[in-house]
Amino acid sequence: MAIKDILFLLNPEAEAQTAAPYATAFAELLDAHFTAAGVIYEMLIPSGFTGDYPAEITAALTDQSRERNAAAYALLCKAAPASLRTELVEIDAIPGEARYELARLARHFDLTIIGQSRERSGDDALMAEAALFESGRPVLFVPRIHTHAPKLSRVVVAWDGSRTAARALADAQPVLDKADVIDVVSISDPRLGYKELPGFNITRHLSRHGLNAELKRLPMSGDVGETLLSYAADAGADLLVMGGYGHSRLREIVLGGTTRTIMQSMTVPIFMSH
After folding, report:
1. In a domain, 193, yes or no
2. Which of 18, 34, 85, 211 is exposed most, by the fewest CB atoms within 10 A?
3. How far is CA 46 from CA 2, 41, 54, 93, in A?
């Protein structure tokens, strides 16, 4: 399926707006519709509070939140390509539940784009993890330091033969179709437990889709995530495609080691699927 319907998590903080230009340009590159989602947090009455809580206070805080999202969306539209079709939707949720509302919303889109979180934990990180692990859809993460327009001259695909890697590869097909060169990176590490089937190679599959893909076997050098990021930087990659590893524990997402490294240290946009 083509990527024609993109969701973007809007962040009203001025310093967090770096992902917006990339996201809108990426949507135009794929000729996709672009929907920005702004979170409106519903105010909770403090625990132990007795008496009447002024309704005008909660209403004013809600209005401020809406105004900030509207202002951020206006700036996004002003900088977006003129031909891009955009709209703004709002996620109304109490603190702690917004991430699940985002995941439910993301199931109605082909792809969600999110800017890299500045914190290892906190609301932004939880929103990103929920979109990846709970939506059933791919997520494109944009590094904070990334300022270049999207291009797909060289795409790196991380391949370990797993179900998650295969899912990411399939989800990224519309993006790979636009790539000039695809490097399929396989890291040699006995701990990964992956053995290639005789006569089968993932580049064989990609070539049957008319894609120019070459297999690159890398020796293990420290952390898998660090190895992938180092290769992507050395190769001048425009995008890294990989599976997102993790599991849910008591409704909290627990990242796998490689995924955590990538999420924290990314220097190139990352297309992930779980």
Report:
1. yes
2. 85
3. 46, 14, 12, 16
Rounded to whole angstroms, the Cα distance separating 178 from 153 reads 8
Cα separation, 27 vs 8, whole angstroms: 10
CB-side neighbour CA atoms (13 Å) of 237: 26
Residue 181 resides in a domain: yes
pLDDT at 13: 77
| pLDDT one-digit tens code per residue, 157-187 | 999 888 999 999 999 999 999 999 999 999 8
Structure tokens at 216: 């690159």
According to DSSP, the β-strands at 139-142 and 111-115 are parallel
User: Range of 118's domain?
Assistant: 5-142
- Can you tell me the distance from the alpha carbon of 225 to that of 237, in angstroms, rounded to the nearest whole number? 15
Q: Contact 180/212 with Cβ under 8 angstroms?
A: yes
Considering only CA atoms, give the Rg of the chain: 20
